[in-house]
């Protein structure tokens, strides 16, 4: 199990506005909505001078993310922008890229529709068998564990070590877990990417993502991609994320506690055919999950008899938002077959929110009928 942010780091996150503050300074970072900054003479490293290069509100959010990741972090306007930056900073024509065949589909679409056209050779493997076949010849390997939406797991430490030994770079998409649930850099990954649209933002009102790394040269390449491509976040979204990060630990704890209580109840329900949740003993990689994850997450996958039954369940439950994406304070669910994922027709991805369990379970149980 990774250590993740300790109690002191978590407490420090709540007091970052006081660090270096002068008397009368605001504790919350201001929203700096400016494309231009005062620039007499030559530019100075670290000081904003143009809105595509830096912004004080981004930097405040990045400082908070860096504290949680235990490494420098860069903010992007979405999770896919973060993934794109990590791949564009590490790949060139002729390189080989390995992706999970059962991970977030948008990454595979990006590779197929764009990276292959640039001369990158793309291959895929299922997460549960990701290490099979080795990693010789791959420049970059994108790991997603637990995978989305099937919640399969692979060994981040073993895969990252093998990728490095083969001369490649490991990139871990940690969207489903956040740094409070799992810290891939502590397990040996070269880069971590995440969608902060999900639990870090938590209120379903922003699109953001980030990249973090302890490799200064690698992160400098990612920063250069952001600057040259213009893939920059807005200051208002960065401000919202900074505010939301202060409650992430509390929200995630409630979400994960709820999921751990709901998963065995769903597994015991006669209408449910199969439940996928890393915290259940029935999960094929439960032992690995206990070793490398601090929490088992807030996503539960389960299968009903048909897609019609799954859609009816979602529609009947008053405490479920019928929506894609996940990680909000509210519980949400969807049939992932509609996006072309390789899942059973009745497979439901349930994102467990912060509702009181004594209200949430009766609502789910009644909707199951």
Question: What features would you highlight for this structure?
Answer:
single chain; 5-stranded mixed sheet; Aspartate Aminotransferase, domain 2; 2 domains; Aspartate Aminotransferase, domain 1; 12 helices; 369 residues; alpha/beta; 7-stranded mixed sheet; 36% helix
Can you describe this structure?
A 7-stranded mixed sheet has the order 1-7-6-5-4-2-3. Strands 8-9-12-11-10 form a 5-stranded mixed sheet, covered by helices on one side. Helix 2 runs parallel beside helix 8 (235-245). The protein has 2 domains: 7-245, Type I PLP-dependent aspartate aminotransferase-like (Major domain) (Aspartate Aminotransferase, domain 2); 248-368, Alpha-Beta Complex (Aspartate Aminotransferase, domain 1). The chain is α/β, with parallel strands linked by helices and 369 residues long. The two termini are 38 Å apart. The model has no long low-confidence stretch (mean pLDDT 96). It contains 12 helices and 12 strands. The radius of gyration is 21 Å and the shape is globular.
């Amino acid at each position: 199990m990774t250590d993740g942010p300790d109690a002191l780091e978590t407490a420090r996150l709540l007091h970052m506005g006081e660090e270096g503050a002068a008397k009368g300074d605001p504790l919350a970072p201001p929203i700096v909505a400016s494309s231009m900054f005062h620039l007499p003479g030559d530019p100075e490293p670290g000081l904003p001078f143009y809105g595509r290069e830096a912004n004080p509100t981004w930097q405040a959010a990045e400082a908070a993310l860096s504290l949680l990741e235990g490494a420098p972090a860069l903010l992007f306007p979405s999770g896919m922008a973060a993934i794109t930056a990590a791949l564009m900073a590490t790949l060139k024509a002729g390189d080989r890229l390995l992706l999970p065949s059962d991970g977030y589909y948008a990454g595979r679409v990006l590779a197929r529709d764009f990276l292959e056209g640039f001369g990158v050779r793309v291959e895929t493997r299922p997460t549960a068998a990701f290490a099979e076949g080795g990693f010789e010849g791959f420049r970059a390997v994108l790991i997603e564990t637990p995978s989305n939406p099937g919640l399969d797991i692979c060994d981040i430490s073993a895969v990252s070590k093998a990728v490095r030994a083969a001369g490649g770079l490991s990139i871990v998409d940690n969207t489903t877990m956040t740094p409070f649930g799992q810290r891939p850099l502590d397990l040996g990954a070269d880069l971590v990417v995440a969608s902060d649209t999900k639990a870090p933002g938590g209120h379903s009102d922003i699109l953001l993502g980030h990249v973090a790394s302890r490799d200064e040269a690698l992160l400098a390449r990612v920063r250069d991609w952001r600057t040259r491509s213009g893939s920059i976040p807005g200051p208002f979204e960065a401000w919202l994320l900074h505010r939301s990060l202060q409650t992430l630990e509390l929200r995630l704890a409630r979400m994960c506690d709820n999921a751990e209580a709901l998963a065995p109840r769903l597994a015991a329900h006669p209408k449910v055919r199969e439940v996928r949740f890393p915290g259940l003993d029935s999960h094929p990689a439960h032992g690995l999950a206990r070793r490398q994850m601090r929490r088992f997450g807030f996503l539960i996958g389960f299968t009903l008899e048909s897609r019609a039954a799954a859609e009816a369940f979602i529609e009947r439950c008053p405490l479920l938002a019928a929506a894609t994406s996940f990680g909000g304070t509210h519980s949400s669910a969807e049939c992932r077959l509609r996006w072309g994922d390789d899942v059973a027709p009745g497979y439901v991805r349930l994102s467990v929110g912060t509702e009181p369990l004594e209200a949430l379970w009766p609502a789910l149980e009644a909707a199951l009928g």
